[in-house]
Amino acid sequence: MHDLYRQLCRDHRNMQQLLDAFEALLEDFGRRERDPATLGLILDALDYISVYPDRWHHPLEDLAMERLRTKPAANLVPVDRTMAEHKALVSATRRMNTLFYAIANDAAVERSQLFGPVREYLQLQRQHMERENREIFPQLERLLTAADWADIERQLQVQRDPLFNPDLRRMYDSLHDYIANFQQPACATA
C-alpha cells in the first residue's frame, strides 16, 4: 500500500474526528450562544476544512481518480459523482465560513438560518467520506500500481496536515487540544 493511499485513509479518520468535535462545538454554541471561545474553535475548524481538505486532500483524490479513469476495470460512476461533490464541498464550506464569520462580527443570524444548514453540511461531509470509503478507496487500492502512485506523487506539492502533524500544529493548537480531549458519547460509532 502506497504512502499516499495511507494518507488518504488517515485523512478520513482525522476528518471524522474533526466533524465529531465540530458537531459537539455546535451543540455547545447552541446552548451558550456567542461564546467567544466556542466560536473561535468553530472558526478554526472551518478554516482547517478550507485549507487542508479543499487544497490538498481533495486534489490528491482527484488525481488518483483521474488515474482510475485509465483503468478498464474501474467503475467510473462513483468517480464522476465524487469529483463533482468535491466542488460542492468547497462551496458548502464557504457558506459555513460566511455564516460563522457573520456571527463573529455581531451580525444577527437566526437559529434556523444557522443550524439547519450546519446539519446539512455535516451530513454532506459524512456521506461524502462514507461513499469514498465504500466506492472509491477500494478501487484505488485494487487498481492503482506503485507506478501510478509515483506519477501522482510527482504531480503534487506534498503538504503536511497542519492539524494532525505535530510540527505544523501550532496554527491550530486550540482546535487540536479540543479534539484530543473530546470525549465521544458511549453510543457513538465510527
Give the count of helical stretches. Answer: 6
Structural class, from secondary structure content? mainly alpha
Would you tell me the overall average pLDDT? 85
| Portion in beta strands | under 5%
What percent of residues adopt helix (DSSP H or I)?
Answer: over 70%
The biggest beta sheet reads:
none
Number of strands: 0
Cα-atom Rg, whole angstroms? 18 Å
| End-to-end separation | 23 Å
Unreliable stretches covering 5 or more consecutive residues: none
**Succession of helices and strands:** HHHHHH
Per the principal axes of the C-alpha atoms, what is the gross shape?
elongated
Kindly describe this structure:
This protein is an all-alpha fold. Helices cover 75% and strands 0% of the residues. The protein contains 6 helices and no strands. It has helices spanning 3-31, 36-68, 76-104, 111-143, 146-155, 173-181. α1 (3-31) runs antiparallel to α4, α2 (36-68) crosses α5 (146-155) and α3 (76-104) runs antiparallel to α4. It is elongated.
Quick overview:
This protein has 190 residues and is an all-alpha fold. It has helices spanning 3-31, 36-68, 76-104, 111-143, 146-155, 173-181. The protein has 6 helices and no strands.
